[in-house]
Design goal:
The strands form 6 sheets. Strands 2, 3, 4, 5 and 6 form a 5-stranded antiparallel beta sheet that branches. Strands 1-23-22-21 form a 4-stranded antiparallel beta sheet, with no helix packed on it. The protein has a single domain, classed as TolB, C-terminal domain (Neuraminidase, 6 Propeller), CATH 2.120.10.30. The N and C termini lie far apart (43 Å). It is mainly β. The protein is built from 4 helices and 23 strands.
Length: 344
């Protein structure tokens, strides 16, 4: 009962913020919701009990709610957590911060208050945050038809700068799901001309303050069926991505892993459905800064318990809880990456 009450209070706090966003002409005019009743979350990872080898909902009722959530990115020091929430017409990026040992009520990130924003990645030093948005390139206020990769830099007061378009990477097609290595090399998805499928994974090295011409990862990784949501390991030793073109497991659009050799070639991707215990599509892969936990997003509806009894009574109840058919954020021990316990 106590646990249920905490979930309801936390969900209400987030819903107040998001309903205000949906009703406001511009998100920047909305003050973040605050409540003295928001649960006191202390400790690493929002005070959540770490998972084992079975995927667990991350922060149910607080981050994973009845809404649709994507992405799951901690800053390198583990003191800030960012994630995206669907508010109907747009996506907004939310942030909660650990302040004086306690996590704050989630609020809309400063750079996500005017235009749709999703798919974020943070540099190894925590000083630059990449994300995707349809905001105007020209500053005219008219949104673009495609998504571009943008970035913000950490300012002296610990906040974020105004967004800058990553013009060296972006094309006339959509670019999305940036993922950055420890040395600044950027991996991303794009539907630009010359690819093998609907969307391909590209790589751009960062040297002398500039990004090199993006290179397609090639046919071992990319397929005519299309790839998506690629997370690159900080040391570039492996990549985990969603694919509809590789050999499918129980899920359509499973996660796959491919290892990079010393000669920069990629191994045949291996399906992760078994490791993720998935019977449906998983996406938005991400590793925790300490490398211990693997985060991902998935829609895994659970309307009944193991005995077949409904776990909710009314439609309203179903809409207000996680695992109701919308996407939620999950986490699992990253041991399966380190010890090789992967699907064939």
């Amino acid at each position: 009962m106590k646990r249920s009450l905490v979930y309801i209070v936390a969900l209400c706090a987030v819903l107040v913020t998001l309903v205000s966003i949906a009703c406001a002409p511009h998100v920047e005019r909305v003050s973040p919701a605050t409540t003295a009743e928001f649960p006191a979350l202390t400790g690493p990872y929002l005070g959540q009990s770490p998972p084992g080898r079975h995927p667990e909902l991350f922060a149910p009722g607080i981050v994973s709610t009845g809404l649709a959530e994507l992405n799951s990115v901690f800053t390198p020091d583990g003191k800030e957590f960012y994630y995206a929430v669907d508010i109907g017409m747009d996506w907004v990026i939310m942030v909660t911060r650990e302040r004086n040992g306690t996590w704050s009520t989630p609020e809309v990130a400063s750079f996500s208050r005017e235009d749709s924003a999703v798919d974020l990645s943070i540099s190894a030093d925590g000083q630059r945050l990449f994300y995707c948005s349809n905001r105007s390139r020209s500053g005219s206020g008219e949104r673009e038809h495609n998504l571009d990769i943008w970035y913000v830099d950490r300012t002296e007061d610990g906040e974020w700068s105004e967004p800058t378009n990553l013009a060296a990477i972006n094309s006339d097609s959509s670019e999305f799901y940036p993922s950055v290595t420890a040395d600044g090399t950027l991996y991303f998805l794009s539907g630009r001309d010359g690819g093998l499928g609907r969307n391909d994974i590209y790589r751009s090295q960062f040297a002398n303050g500039e990004y090199a011409e993006p290179e397609n990862l090639g046919p071992v990784v990319n397929t005519p069926g299309g790839e998506g949501d690629a997370f690159i390991a900080p040391d570039e030793s492996y990549i985990i991505f969603n694919s509809s073109g590789h050999k499918r497991g129980p899920a359509d659009g499973s996660l796959f892993i491919s290892y990079r050799s010393d000669d920069a070639t990629w191994s045949t991707p291996r399906n992760l459905s078994s490791a993720m215990q998935a019977d449906r599509s998983d996406f938005c892969p991400m590793l925790s800064p300490d490398g211990k936990y693997f985060f991902f997003s998935s829609a895994r509806p659970r309307f009944a318990d193991s005995s077949g009894h409904l776990t909710w009574v009314t439609l309203t109840e179903a809409q207000s809880r996680p695992e109701n058919g919308n996407t939620d954020i999950y986490w699992i021990s990253a041991d399966f990456i380190r010890d090789g316990s992967l699907a064939p």
